[in-house]
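Note to self: keep these together.
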Amino acid sequence: MEMKVSNDGLALIKKFEGCRLEAYTCSAGVWTIGYGHTGKEVTPGLVISQKQAEEWLLVDCNRVLQMLRKALRVPLKQNQLDALVSLGFNIGAEALRKSTLMILVNRDPNERGIPDQFDRWVYAGGKMVNGLVRRRKAERELYAGR
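Structure:
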């Protein structure tokens, strides 16, 4: 299987990230634009088109996919890949790569306990965030094929 995020995976990310075409500081104090895109090119006052937001979304998803291509030792179903891309998009590819979740996926991607691992990533600044709880529930269900 070619590793590519599906339209379902993109829709999940878009739903939870939302799209803002004008740069803003996120809750972590980072300049952000489009569908949660960050980087040195995001500066105060920056305004982008919807087309640019879509392009950066794919660039950011591809960053996670690139890590997964290197880190995965087992084949995944599309729904499992999409859930991991959404999680990695949100927490960062490196955090996902180092996670217990990835260790378990590489051991057996169909292990029953894997979906529960998504629930460990619901904290920001040491506090549980309701939006992250909802996102992880959606990712967990997508991973499990529900």
